[in-house]
Design goal:
Elements lengths: L3 H9 L10 H28 L4 H28 L10 H28 L1
Length: 121
């Protein structure tokens, strides 16, 4: 019985494979799928808001980019906060930090485009 406990503990601490999709990694992928289109839409909204063509759609795009960026940051932050280990443990902490950066970029682009659309309207 004394040998069973260390053996069971060793099984619980096995490293996760690089291509294993854990729940933390899955959530970081979901957040990235929200944030990356937010960056693209925010860039398009910012480019459109420079001219006055399509100001209404530029404002809608800016709001979509802002919301997508905030959602990406929230999910990434939750993954980072819930991670119990560092990189390579399967908790998705690296992806969470990437999502925080992507979400910040999308939110800033959306916010800038929204602010610019208010000034031109």
């Amino acid at each position: 019985m004394g040998l069973a406990t260390p053996a069971a503990a060793h099984v619980l601490v096995q490293p996760v494979g690089a291509y294993t999709l854990t729940s933390g990694r899955l959530w970081t992928v979901v957040a990235a799928l929200l944030g990356l289109p937010g960056v693209v839409i925010g860039g398009l909204a910012l480019a459109r808001s420079a001219g006055r063509i399509g100001a209404d759609t530029g404002r809608k795009r800016a709001i979509v980019a802002l919301v997508a960026g905030l959602a990406c940051m929230v999910i990434g932050g939750l993954v980072v906060a819930a991670a119990e280990g560092g990189p390579g443990t399967g908790y998705g902490i690296v992806g969470g930090f990437v999502d925080l950066a992507i979400g910040l970029i999308a939110a800033v682009l959306g916010g800038l485009a929204l602010a610019r659309s208010r000034h031109t309207a």
